[in-house]
Amino acid sequence: MFRKLCNAILFKWKGWTEEVTVPHREKCIIAVAPHTSNWDFIIGELYYGTKGRHAQFLMKKDWFRWPLGWLFRRLGGIPVDRSRKGSLTDQLAEIAKASDHFELAVTPEGTRKRVTTWKRGFYYIAKKADLPIQLFAIDYKRKRIVCTAELQPTDDFEADWKFIMDYYAKFADFGKHENSFAIDGEE
After folding, report:
1. Across the strands, what pairs with 139?
2. How far apart are CA 130 and CA 159, in angstroms?
3. Residue 178 has pLDDT above 50, yes or no
4. Which residues contact 72 (CB under 8 A, 6 or more apart)?
5. Backbone angles phi, psi at 145, to 5 degrees
6. What's the confidence (pLDDT) of residue 84?
7. Residue 16 class from Cβ within 10 Å (0-12 exposed, 13-18 middle, 19+ buried)?
8. Which pathway does the database say it acts in (predicted)?
9. pLDDT per position as a tens digit, 51-93
10. What average pLDDT score do residues 157-177 get?
11. Closest residue by Cα to residue 32 from 129, 145, 135
C-alpha cells in the first residue's frame, strides 16, 4: 500500500521519472548530490518508498527536536552533532560491517549551501566497511532521479575521488533549480 502511494505521488501526480541502472544492494552508501533543497529529503524518501526500500540518513542534530525528532528517528535518521569530537565514520563502518542490511544515504556537501569542498566521510565509511557507493542525483529541471554509476572504493583515493567528482560534474546545473516538486510555486 505504501509503495503504491509513493508511486502515485512521485511518478503519477508529480511527473517524475527515474534513470537508475545500478543494482539493488542490501549494503551500500547512497551519495545524493547536489543537495540544494529540503525537498531533496522528501523526494528521496518517496523514491525509496516506491522501491519498498528503507535507508538511514545523517541529519544535523538540530532537526531532531520536537516536534519532528521522533519522525526523523522513525524514518531512519541519525543525528549528527558537528561540535562533538570522535569518529562517526568509524562508528558507522562498524555498524555496517555487523549488519545484514545497511543502506546509508548521505549528502556529500553536508549542507544545502554551495560549497567548494565536499565532506569525505561517506567515502571512508564505504572504504572501511567494504561497501559500494551508489551515486544518485536529483534532477529538478528534468524531474528525474538518476543513478547510473557505482564505485567500490579502492586503495587509490585520488582516482576514486576524481571518478565521483567527474560523475557529478554533469549534474552541476542542478544546483539552481525551479522547485518542480513544490505546490503551485511554493518553495
Report:
1. 144
2. 17
3. no
4. 59, 63, 64, 79
5. -100, 125
6. 66
7. buried
8. Lipid metabolism
9. 988 888 877 788 788 888 888 877 777 777 766 666 788 888 9
10. 80
11. 135
Contacts of 132 (CB under 8 A, 6+ apart): 25, 28, 29, 126, 150, 151, 152
DSSP string spanning the chain? -HHHHHHIIIIIIS--EEEE-SPP-SEEEEEE-----THHHHHHHHHHHHTT---EEEEEGGGGSTTTHHHHHHTTEEEE-TTS-S-HHHHHHHHHHH-S-EEEEE-TTSSSS--SS---HHHHHHHHHT--EEEEEEETTTTEEEEEEEE---S-HHHHHHHHHHHHHTTGGGGS---SSSSTT--
| Grid cell digits, residue 13 | 501526480
| Grid cell 566497511 in the structure block, residue | 129
Can you tell me the distance from the alpha carbon of 59 to that of 70, in angstroms, rounded to the nearest whole number?
Answer: 13
Which set of grid coordinates corresponds to residue 185? 510555486
* pTM for this model (two decimals): 0.81
Q: Can you read off the three cell numbers belonging to residue 108?
A: 556529500
Q: Looking up cell 540544494, which residue turns up?
A: 36
Nearest to 130 by CA among 162, 163, 97, 104: 97
